[in-house]
Q: What sequence folds into this?
């Protein structure tokens, strides 16, 4: 599977960027160091000026790739969800038993992220932390409806659809498959956040607890 993943290019909706950062060394450097900087100081404090200083490039050169830091965040979140989707597709492909396949998919979207050597300019561990802390800022905006129409969230929605289909393969008449799928994905991010910052209001003290919680919740609902 790793060899197959290495040959695949993670694709992000083209409208998000002005120039594909994967096509140049500068673009890859922008992605690499934006992940590091956002993880360090948070998205609210992140600016292209600060990023330019770190990578030794003019702020204007970053704007050739992304028209705003919001679009950069959309790029990072889309890349992350596409990366998770690839793992889901390849790690569940050969599983014949529907419930086992669903449980594996839940494990993939809730487990601790490990760095993937296939993408040397992207630290997936840091990116995962950004998704946990900042993902909602990519869509909790006044422009969300138009951006949705423009296809900015197609990768994330595709992941939800895949998980929904696996839920229906286990229980075909379950009425809330889309709601359950989206809640597993978003809920796991929230539980990771609580685990790290508000431990008194979650029973999930370890990442394995988060996977177990959503696995048990899902199977019990589908009985």
A:
């Amino acid at each position: 599977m790793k060899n197959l993943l290495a040959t695949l290019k993670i694709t992000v909706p083209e409208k998000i960027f002005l120039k594909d950062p994967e096509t140049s060394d500068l673009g890859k450097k922008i992605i690499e160091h934006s992940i590091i900087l956002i993880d360090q100081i948070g998205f609210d404090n992140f600016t292209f000026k600060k990023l330019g200083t770190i990578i030794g490039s003019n702020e204007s050169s970053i704007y050739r790739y992304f028209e705003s830091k919001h679009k950069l965040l959309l790029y990072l979140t889309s890349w992350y969800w596409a990366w998770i989707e690839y793992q889901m597709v390849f790690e569940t492909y050969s599983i014949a038993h529907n419930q086992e396949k669903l449980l594996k998919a839940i494990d993939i979207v809730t487990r601790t992220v490990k760095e993937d050597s296939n993408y040397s300019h992207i630290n997936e561990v840091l990116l995962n932390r950004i998704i946990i802390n900042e993902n909602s800022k990519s869509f909790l905006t006044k422009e969300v409806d138009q951006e949705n129409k423009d296809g900015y969230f197609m990768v994330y929605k595709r992941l939800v659809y895949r998980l929904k289909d696996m839920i229906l393969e286990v229980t075909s008449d379950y009425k809330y498959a889309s709601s359950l799928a989206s809640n597993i994905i978003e809920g796991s991010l929230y539980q990771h956040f609580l685990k790290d910052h508000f431990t008194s209001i979650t029973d999930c003290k370890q990442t394995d607890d988060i996977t177990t919680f959503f696995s048990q919740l899902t199977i019990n609902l589908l009985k």
The chain is about 65% helix and 0% strand. Residues 1-7 have pLDDT under 50 and may be disordered. Residues 2-11+75-221 form one domain. The CA atoms of residues 34 and 79 lie 13 Å apart.
